[in-house]
């Protein structure tokens, strides 16, 4: 399955538009990760725990979108967009969403 942010795929032609597909993930950030990130905010450095959580959420959202495209009989998802948000009263939730157009190719 080809997944791309572009609207075209070199050497291939879109023959059918199957529809818009989405992937959504909302995940909680636990207290220990918050504590570690808070210390890095004071002393500097990267927050590996948050980066890992973000990477996992992004990969899960893309996989969910891909699975939905496969269910429609698509060969690719084009014009993919991703969005990241922090949710919750204490900003303790991370939301990753992606969307794109599922298509058939020659």
Description:
With 106 residues, the protein is an alpha+beta fold. It has a single domain, classed as Hypothetical protein apc22750. Chain B (Translation Initiation Factor IF3, 2-Layer Sandwich). The protein contains two helices and four strands. A hairpin with a 5-residue loop joins strand 3 and strand 4 (93-105). This is UPF0145 protein J2S23_000467.
Q: For this structure, what is the CATH homologous superfamily?
A: Hypothetical protein apc22750. Chain B
Number of domains: 1
Largest sheet: 4 strands, mixed
Q: Mean pLDDT, nearest integer?
A: 86
**Can you write the helix and strand succession as a string?**
EEHHEE
Q: Enumerate the spans where pLDDT stays under 50 for 5 or more consecutive residues.
A: none
Q: Number of helical segments?
A: 2
Which CATH architecture is right? 2-Layer Sandwich
Protein name: UPF0145 protein J2S23_000467
Family: Belongs to the UPF0145 family.
Pfam families: YbjQ_1
Organism: Streptococcus moroccensis
Topology, element by element:
Elements: E1 2-3, E2 14-28, H1 31-43, H2 48-71, E3 76-87, E4 93-105
Parallel strand pairs: 1-3
Antiparallel strand pairs: 2-4, 3-4
Protein name: UPF0145 protein J2S23_000467
Pfam family, one: YbjQ_1
InterPro entries: UPF0145_dom_sf (IPR035439), UPF0145_YbjQ-like (IPR002765)
């Amino acid at each position: 399955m080809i997944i791309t942010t572009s609207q075209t795929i070199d050497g291939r032609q879109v023959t059918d538009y199957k529809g818009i597909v989405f992937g959504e993930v909302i995940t909680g950030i636990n207290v220990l990760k918050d504590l570690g990130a808070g210390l890095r905010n004071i002393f500097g450095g990267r927050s590996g725990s948050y980066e890992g959580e973000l990477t996992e959420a992004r990969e899960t959202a893309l996989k969910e979108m891909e699975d939905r495209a496969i269910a429609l009989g698509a060969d690719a998802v084009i014009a993919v967009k991703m969005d990241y948000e922090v949710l919750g009263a204490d900003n303790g939730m991370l939301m990753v969403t992606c969307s794109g157009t599922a298509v058939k190719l020659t």
